[in-house]
Amino acid sequence: MAEDLNERGRKILEAIIEDYIVSAEPVGSRAMTRRHPLSLSPATVRNVMADLEEMGYIISPHTSSGRVPTEKGYRFYVDSLLQTRHLSREEQLQIEQHYRLKSLRVEDLLQEAGKALSAISNYTGLVMAPRFTATIFRHIEFIRLSQGRILAVFVTRSGLVQNKLIEHDNDLSHAELEQIGNYLTRTLGGLTIQQVRAHIVSEMGQEKALYDKLLQRALRLSQEALSDEPGNQIFIEGTTNILDQPEFADVDRMKRLFRAFEQKSQLVELLDRAQQARGVQIFIGSESEYSDIEGCSLVTAAYSNRRGTLGTLGVIGPSRMPYAMVIPIVDYTARLVSQLLDAEEN
Amino acid sequence: MAEDLNERGRKILEAIIEDYIVSAEPVGSRAMTRRHPLSLSPATVRNVMADLEEMGYIISPHTSSGRVPTEKGYRFYVDSLLQTRHLSREEQLQIEQHYRLKSLRVEDLLQEAGKALSAISNYTGLVMAPRFTATIFRHIEFIRLSQGRILAVFVTRSGLVQNKLIEHDNDLSHAELEQIGNYLTRTLGGLTIQQVRAHIVSEMGQEKALYDKLLQRALRLSQEALSDEPGNQIFIEGTTNILDQPEFADVDRMKRLFRAFEQKSQLVELLDRAQQARGVQIFIGSESEYSDIEGCSLVTAAYSNRRGTLGTLGVIGPSRMPYAMVIPIVDYTARLVSQLLDAEEN
DNA sequence: GGTTAGCACTCAGGTCCCAAGAGTGCTAAG
DNA sequence: CTTAGCACTCTTGGGACCTGAGTGCTAACC
Fold first, then answer.
1. Beta carbons of A104 and B149 less than 8 Å apart
2. Which of A192, A223, B129, B307 could make an SS bond with B233 (beta carbons 3.0 to 4.6 A apart)?
3. How much of chain B exceeds pLDDT 90, in percent?
4. Under 8 Å CB-to-CB from B112, ≥6 apart: which residues?
């Protein structure tokens, strides 16, 4: 497909998309030649446009209107036409500014990243917290709340706190619980939650475990505490930004998008998918396969520490989005967050 | 004001408001007499309507249209006309159903309450978590994350977990931190956070504290850990419900409302104000003094345990809201949540 | 042969006007 | 005091009309 596009076709497609990105109006041949110094007449541009339309890169909403990029058009633009410029030092500083003077708790950092993304891009910022199973276990504490009700509190090495309520038949004393917590923290600290789980399973399988009452209880409790995965946490910030986009004057479309924000599961799934890839990943329109966010694009990048990928962050907005600006912002933010998280672990 | 309204005036005002609540259209004299068996002619109703308009209970959007209730009209309706019916046993069961088979963590319970409120009322559910300072301290733990960075984790008696990062100059060992945590948990458990704070301040003022190294450190750490109030946590559930209301076909109004949802601070302030009152509290339109939620009403009730009020929950929707249905739902939910929280503390 | 000017055609959107319908206020009779 | 009647107002929806932007096609041009 792409190879039948000659230099002129590409230039014109690029011009159409860039005009459309700023104006949100169908781009006509005449207006375009006026705005871009292509030294081509409108008639010629029209011919090229007809070709582009045939190839599926653009479409006209009705017979006598200008052209609008299709998803395929955006995809080609993003893959082949766009050159992502680097951020200037000032722009970088502007982003970094959002992370100054803040408490350094991981949750806060991630939420702040979401807010910063939305504020800088003027779209909605998304940040998915690290997968619980992949985080490194640091500390566990069992606290007796009342007869039979025990609260398990885990802390990961990065300082993320999770807790779970356990109902337990035989009442364990404060001292016993403390002993159990200490034992688990001592023996399992430094492993990932996933490894901890595996360890527990293998220990429980061994006969010897049954002879040691404390160990037995510790295993039972910790297994229960880690039994179900907490849903992947996601921060969605700046949802109202997106309301200023002309494409959401249509109330119905807006409703669907906000429903997706409220449910979160679709976005979690998308960000999870994006986590596999290196660098900036872009979903355009129906590529996401969720009709609720139809007409929207997602620009994402994974963040990581020295041990590997932790989570994903990004921006969601209408497909008519200034990718040339958003991509480096997301990219730089992911690097920055990675760096800050790494620094915390020193 | 109210006393110049005779029985007939009240009946008609009630009919107007109830019609308007279901139709969202200005109510005319003719249509109204058809719908309500008042045995009055439209002309008479018109006369009464003119009086009601003069008194400020209703208003007509333009000269030749029906009447719409004013805020004053709603206020009078809620205060004097409306008789809140009790929920039937089935309705109660329907509400209770939302709380079955769920984990019993306090946060989860509160969030669930918000979801239930929104699902049952078809508006947006709000739940403000208990004020941190008023909750009862149960356990504190200091975990050393890295050189100079300590994570303080508190647990309240009801099982609410909070954490805070502390930067500390002199490096404390794992054993020291454990000792300090144990000491604080032992001596301060059972007090409210507020009392804990006061206690720390008074202890630090006493000379003797300076001689005991451990105590000194414990106080210093705990003071820092409790130094700043975490913002009041609020759960806002079912925001998209509200989009189906015809009053939010106006995109601009919707934007403002969602901005209020995103910022949360206005809602927190309102719910906080409502916490003082007993029973169901209602804010109609500009009574809330926030223009972002203009045209909206808030129906709230405080929930509590045996020791006193904990927080507030409620529903927000357009002022054109079936109060007769929403009020008992909010009321019953508050009772139910109170009961469930009390049961947990046993 | 690619490029361009010219031309006829299409369509959305704004404006104007009109008719219908719902509602009002006023007046006079019951 | 209540109500029937009437003239009047105002919104809403539809239709007619115009304008402007844009298109596709054809024929001339370089």
1. yes
2. B129
3. 52
4. B98, B99, B102
